[in-house]
Amino acid sequence: MDRTPQCDAVELRVHGISGVTAERILDHPIVVRVAGDAHAGFFRPRPASGAAGGATAGVAVEAYRWGSLTAGAAVRTASMLLLLPFMLSNLAIWLRPPGRDRWGLLGMLCRLLAGTLTSTFVLAIVGVALDLVGWQCVPYPGCRASRPYLAWLYALPSGPRLALLSVVPLLALRTVWAIGARSARAFEGFGPSSAQPLSGARTESLADASFWHDEQTTGWLRQVHVALGVGTLNVALLAGVSPGGVGAPGHLALFGMAVGLLVVGVVLLSLPTPANPAKARRVLRPLWAATAGVTVLCLISAVLAGGAPSGSGKLPGYEGAAAGVVAAQGVLLVVLTVVTYVRQRAARGDDRPPLRGLGTPIMAAASASVGAAFTATLVYRVADVLDHGDIPDPIRPDSPTVGPLDPPVAYWWAALAGLAALLIGAAATSATLLLTRRRRRGLAARIIERDYPDVPAEDASRLRLVREAIARSRLTEELGPVLIAFLVIASLGLATVAFDVIGIGPTQLAARLGGHGGALAVLAAYVTDAGVWVISLLVICLMVLGFRAYRSSQTRRVVAVLWDLGTFWPRTVHPFAPPCYAARAVPELAKRITGLTARGPVVLSGHSHGSVLAAATILQLPPSVLARLSLLTYGSPLRRTYARLYPAYLGPETLCDLGGRIGWRWRNLWRDTDPIGGPTFPRAPGTASPCADPAAGDVDIRLRDPRSLAIDPADTVPPPIERHWPYHTQPAYQVAVRELIDRSR
After folding, report:
1. Tens digits of per-residue pLDDT, 306-325?
2. In terms of pLDDT, which residue wins out, 497 or 606?
3. Comparing C-alpha atoms, which of 642, 646, 622 is closest to residue 633?
4. Which residues, 6+ apart, have CB-to-CB distance to 291 below 8 Å?
5. Do the bridges between strand 9-14 and strand 602-607 make them parallel or antiparallel, or are there none, so unpaired?
6. Given a cut of 70, is residue 351 above it in pLDDT?
7. How far is CA 581 from CA 198, 207, 219, 570, 681, in A?
8. Distances from the Cα of 522 to the Cα of 242, 397, 415, 533, angstroms
9. Gap between the Cα atoms of 491 and 369, Å rounded
10. Radius of gyration of the chain (CA)
11. Average of pLDDT values for 233-250?
12. Cα–Cα separations (whole angstroms), residue 602 to 257, 499, 628, 692, 744
């Protein structure tokens, strides 16, 4: 129940990323929740305990703390590391260029790439359970020695053994489904505001009432991805148990049904999500029945295959399947890059596009690379354990009593590509920092000359610190070449899998290029081993971070920074991605603001990423509420980051529309030392306002940081360099709140 006392004016603060406490938002030691719940709530200082820090006279201060939506539950935060590739693939589509996605081509390519990630995930579990354990390890005495948990599988014929082990990929698929569903429970019951009608289909505008309502899209994609994952398992199982190959009599028809299930899944991913729920159910029910039926038939076929010998080498068909999926990712990534670049060239804008407009393929390449790293680490580390510590090596043959225990060659290529991406990325980052250092320092020097024209000699060292802080804050705009280099290396790395398709691994290629000496092949083998270990160590560090997040609330908040940025947008590409917390935060904020504006004027105060939530909320509110609402942002990345990376959704046109909706009752505080925030409507001297309304030129208020270089007579140290936090301690903050309140009355 709302225990908020009646008041005239309210300042509602919304925090940024990393899940800070309500006490820090209000700058007050004693707070009480007045609305919401343990996941996300509204807080005020306890009555009779004093005012909040930075409060304006006559204005009540309230805080909305949403950080527990991503960093509250230990199990939810830690388990989300498993979903990192899926989250990155879902984020890719939101970085697309502005303009209409003609024929839905970009969305289709992103959904297809997300489908390959599901197949990659299932193939990784198939590689461990069916290939390494069931096919390569169990038949060999040296591998199953001292392992009673594997020895009993030797008594089973290969067909029933593989059928039994097929339960493991099915359980893994169900686990990632359950993680996303369990995490979404905190967001249930927060649908669109009743003040705006739901549209029949999703639009590209954040003002659409159904924009954050992704349950229907997620439900559709979830069923399709389950069909893809199960279909991948069925094809791998049939290829392993079919005597004489998949074309043998009695297996060809069933194999065709399993492949047909994959084709249907690919076709459904190529089509947009049905807007009519009844139509979606008419498609999904037969798909679900066909998936279950084909899976049961495949398991029965494996059991009836009986005692077909395992033979030697890898599970039949598994090498080709792993290489084929990675090669498909490479093709999709190339096509996505071309289409995105063409769309970016067609879109017109005043700003120079960051990353040359290739944000979508860069994020897609990151999702494929992280997925390949997870897969290679899982398969190789399990092979290492089964080999009793002997790492599988391309040039060292395994003992006949141990078995081959060789993962697919495609993962060797993936390891080499990952090592190359790390080395070249590190080199590109170092080069960028060095090449831009002089220009960034020159810009900082000009700012210092303007802010501190007469500096005594004793303050020279302090002046250098300020200059370095301003120069470092400009690094955000300089990382574009690094990401472009990553896209090129990732694309080339996926392209190398074409060698695996024709049966050539890294050492074989090196041997052919190096002649008869074999030195180049040995070098390639050790470089590949190093790549596998480097990638494995990175993934293991992520797992350790996940364990720490389970044990430590402080580490949990650090991990939550990634989820705060990556799960802001709805799930429209991959259904196993972590749920969108804005699906609760935006409607909840809108409902609270509607209630507060019925009593008096409200200033919605957003810090950092909280300003993005504030902007999304205002776009959802009706005019009757906006008439008494104002906006105060500080340390805001709205223009500096979001308008440039997400121009189709938070571009300059959207920001101008946002200001017009609230009658330009908007102030934005920013500092040159802030590495995240910046002006919302920047313009060069002598140029026109970026919006048609000249009031946009009054939005941004620049704050000098530090306020002074000299030590105040009443203090013992000079004013600190405040950078990104705090803002509410400066007088300009209270002046802005007072002005906005007066204009809203």
Report:
1. 665 554 577 888 888 888 88
2. 606
3. 642
4. 226, 227, 230, 231, 261
5. parallel
6. no
7. 20, 17, 17, 8, 28
8. 37, 13, 16, 17
9. 10
10. 29
11. 72
12. 61, 63, 6, 26, 8
Predicted confidence (pLDDT) at residue 474 exceeds the cutoff of 90? no
- Residue 325, C-beta contacts closer than 8 angstroms, at least 6 positions apart: 116, 119, 120, 123
Q: Report whether pLDDT(475) > 80.
A: yes
Q: Average pLDDT in the 93-100 region?
A: 87
Task: Supply φ then ψ for residue 739, to 5 degrees.
Answer: -60, -45
- 716: how many CB neighbours lie within 10 A of its CB? 6
| Axis-axis angle for helices 277-305, 215-241 (nearest 10) | 20
**Lookup result for tokens 């004693």:** 30
Q: Which residues contact 591 (CB under 8 A, 6 or more apart)?
A: 193
- In angstroms, the CA 431 to CA 433 distance is 5
| Phi-psi category of residue 608: left, alpha or beta, with phi > 0 → left and psi -120 to 50 → alpha | left
CA distance 432 to 413: 28
Cα–Cα distance measured from residue 175 to residue 164, given in angstroms and rounded to the nearest whole number: 18
CA end-to-end span of the chain: 27
**What is the C-alpha separation between 29 and 149, in angstroms, rounded?**
55
Q: Which of 114-118, 211-215, 523-527, 544-548 has the highest mean pLDDT?
A: 114-118
- What tokens appear for 166 in the block? 């097929």
- Report the Cα 2 to chain-centroid distance in Å: 35
What tokens does 451 get?
């802010």
| Length, in residues, of the chain | 745
pLDDT of residue 199: 43
Contacts of 731 (CB under 8 A, 6+ apart): none
CB 165 within 8 A of CB 134: yes
Identify the helix (H) or strand (E) that includes residue 9.
strand 9-14
Gap between the Cα atoms of 165 and 156, Å rounded: 11
HSE of 6 in the Cβ direction (CA atoms, 13 Å)? 2
Q: Crossing angle, helix 437-451 and helix 460-473, to 10 degrees? A: 130
The per-residue pLDDT for range 639-649, each reduced to its tens digit, is 998 988 898 89
pLDDT at 18 over 80: no
Instruction: Supply the pLDDT for residue 5.
Output: 46
The residue with tokens 């590391």 is 81
Please count the other Cβ atoms lying within 10 Å of the Cβ belonging to residue 599. Answer: 16
Q: What is the pTM of this model?
A: 0.88
Of residues 85, 93, 45, 42, the one with CA closest to residue 64: 42
- In this prediction, residues 573-602 reach a mean pLDDT of 92
Q: In the predicted model, is pLDDT for residue 77 greater than 70? A: no
The Cα 573–Cα 380 span in angstroms is: 29
Find the helix packing angle between 277-305 and 252-270, rounded to 10°. Answer: 150
> Are the CB atoms for 553 and 72 separated by under 8 Å?
no
Q: With the CA atoms of 611, 615, 617 and 620 taken in that order, what torsion angle do they form, in degrees rounded to the nearest 10? A: 180
Q: Give the Å distances, CA to CA, from 476 to 58, 354, 482.
A: 39, 11, 11
Separation in Å, CA 158 to CA 155, 208, 241, 244, 398: 9, 55, 7, 14, 22
Q: Cα separations (Å) of 327 from 333, 432, 492, 499, 518? A: 10, 31, 11, 10, 28
Give the separation between CA 328 and CA 330, rounded to whole angstroms.
Answer: 5
